[in-house]
């Protein structure tokens, strides 16, 4: 089991209900063609050719987000847990780095509900100040809203606590 050795400096929890089965939502997180359609804030693109997903414990992932102005934002990390189709635990960066770089552990839990799938998202950040944490939360809210659009116009309902 992986563990974070640096202190957690920020946490975010978000929740959505998607009108799709857990298997479909899980596939949107784990298949490059699907991930490239939603991964990034509004207006950004994530070219499928830049997405690499080795979806297994210890596997690496990476994606390149491109802003409307053409600025590039590479993201990467590793998978800590993969329990298809119920749970993913992945990192952004290396949460155990000794360089003081911001990083996080993201846990995505998927549960079947009458309306489709409840997604619970939790991000535990390290080396993160409040401004960075607020920006990350705003970004993930947009990511998750875009994910809902894969499942139709009424694809997601917010349930943020």
Summarize the structure in words.
By secondary structure, the chain is of the alpha+beta class. The chain has three helices and eight strands; from the N terminus they run βααββββββαβ. It has helices at 22-30, 32-35, 130-149, and strands spanning 8-18, 52-53, 60-66, 72-83, 87-92, 103-113, 116-126, 156-158. Strands 2-3-4-5-6-7-1-8 form an eight-stranded antiparallel β-sheet, with helices on one face. Strand 4 (72-83) and strand 5 form a beta hairpin. The radius of gyration is 15 Å and the shape is globular. It starts with 7 loop residues before the first strand and ends with a strand. The model has no long low-confidence stretch (mean pLDDT 93).
Features:
161 residues, alpha+beta, 39% strand, globular
Output mean pLDDT.
93
Distance between termini? Answer: 28 Å
Helix- and strand-based class?
alpha+beta
How many distinct beta strands? 8
Pick out the low-confidence regions.
none
Query: How much helical structure, as a percent, in the residues?
Result: 10-25%
Shape: globular
Sheet bearing the most strands, described?
Answer: 8 strands, antiparallel
Draw up the topology in text.
Blueprint lengths: L7 E11 L3 H9 L1 H4 L16 E2 L6 E7 L5 E12 L3 E6 L10 E11 L2 E11 L3 H20 L6 E3 L3
Antiparallel strand pairs: 1-7, 1-8, 2-3, 3-4, 4-5, 5-6, 6-7
Summarize the structure.
The protein is α+β, with helices and mostly antiparallel strands and 161 residues long.
